[in-house]
Structures are given as C-alpha cells and as structure tokens.
Amino acid sequence: MSRSSLDSASSMTLSSSSITTGYNNNYVDNSNVSRIVGPPPSIFDNVELGVGGVPNRFLGITPSFLWQVQPQQTSMMVNSAEYQRSVLLEIESRLEAKCDTLADIFTMDEIDSSSISQISGARLPERVKLIIEEIEREEALLLEDLYSMDRKFAEHFNVIDQILEVLIKFIMDLKLQHQHEFDELRKTWLCKRCQTMNAKLRVLEHLLLRDTYTKESVPALHRIRKYLVEATEEASIAYNKAVTRLREYQGVDPYFDSIARQYNDIVKKLEGMQWTIHQVEMDLKRSLDQSAP
C-alpha cells in the first residue's frame, strides 16, 4: 500500500478540516449535556490502541464516546441526521489517521528494504565472511562449553563414585558390626544351651543310677558282675593260650600264617564240594525213586 493510493481513496470523502471543525463544534455543544445525563466517560476510551483497535471497539469508538458526542435527550431534541453525520465524521477522521499511520509504516519499510538490499549487494562477501566467522566463534564457544560440561560431569561422577564407595564401606562395616554382635549373642546362647543339656544329662544319669541300684537289684547286679568278671578272665586266658600257640607255630615255620590261610581256604572249598555231592546224590535218588514202578 502506498501513500498515493491512500490519498486517492481519501479524496472521495469530505475535507478533513471542515469535518474536524464541525465535529469539534458539535462535541463542545453536547459535552455539557453529557455531563448531566450520560454516564461518565471511561479513562481508557481516549487512549489510542494502535492499528485495528481492540475487540468491541471498532476504530476506537466506544459506547462512552457515543454518549459524549450525542448525549441522551428527548425525542424532540435529537436529530437523527445530525447524529449520523457526527458519527460518520468521527469514523472518517479516525480511518484517515489509521490509513496515514499504515502508509508511513509501509513507506519506511520500503525505504529500509531498498537501502538494505543495496548495502547487502555491495558488501555481500564481507557479510558472508563475518557471518562465517561469527558462526565459527559460536561453534568454538559451544565446543568449549561442551568440554567444560564433560569435565564437570567427570568430576561430579568421580565425586559420586567416591561417595558411593564410602557409603558401601560404611554399610559393610555396619553390617559386620551387627553380624559380630549377632555371632556373640548366638555363641552365648549356644554355650548356655550346652550347659543346660549337660545339666539335664547329669540329672538323667542320677535318675538312672537311682532307678538301677535299689535294695532288690544290688545283689543280682553283684552276681552279674561276678559272672562277667569270670567270663572275661576265661576269655583272656583262652586268648593268651591261642597267642602263645600261634607264636610257637611261627617259631617252627615262619610261613605258618600263609599255610593256615591256605588250609582254611581248602577246608571251605572241601565243604562246598561235599555240599554239591550231597545235592547230586539227592537228585539221583529222587530220579531213581520216580523211575521205579
């Protein structure tokens, strides 16, 4: 949009000076009535809110402004044509101000863009070089930040690793301490239990002795002991005789032990043969008895 197009569009409307003069006169005449009848104007209604205004405020016209320019009167005092004319004049003046603002903005943008394009066309290699150098500096800074972050991470990791080792050692020491205390308690408990079992065994021993050695059983036990002593003496005498005879035989022949073992084996084999012959004779006798008529 250019300034010339906006001027041609605004030429179709009335002269801004005459419009402004009529509007000012109308506004001054009606301001006294609005102070009495209409509501008080808002503080924010007179503030310019930029291009486009805000919702429910088209071109900045608000209900309070309408109360100011055309206060509430009786139907005989209000002229609809004058009211519409005043509203249209205000809308036109504000629309022209908006268009002028937009035209100035676009004109400044065109001037800036043309100057920038000329400068950029003349100094394009220098700008490219500067941009490349700036990118390289940013890349170097980013790499330095990355390396510093890696170093900090390694330091933090080492610190955390050391803390973890200390915690593990502390926990192991604590567990070993508790285990040592538990072992001491268990050892004490086992010692007390062994002492208790020993006392119970002594009690059982005393009870057994009490039940065994009574007035009625003592004479019988003496007889049994005497018999056992005699049997032990006889067995020891027989053993001594056998040992003496074995030594005598060994003195006669040093291979008496091997000969005695061979003799024992031959006797066992002979007994086995005799049993076999006896079984065969019984089978033959049974077969002869069955074959006889």
From TrEMBL:
InterPro entries per the UniProt record, alphabetical: HAUS4
Pfam families hit by this protein: HAUS4
GO cellular component terms given for this protein: HAUS complex
Source organism, top-level taxon: Eukaryota
GO molecular function per UniProt: microtubule minus-end binding
Signal peptide: none
A biological-process GO annotation: spindle assembly
Record PANTHER family: AUGMIN SUBUNIT 4 FAMILY MEMBER (PTHR16219), HAUS AUGMIN-LIKE COMPLEX SUBUNIT 4 (PTHR16219:SF1)
Protein name: HAUS augmin-like complex subunit 4
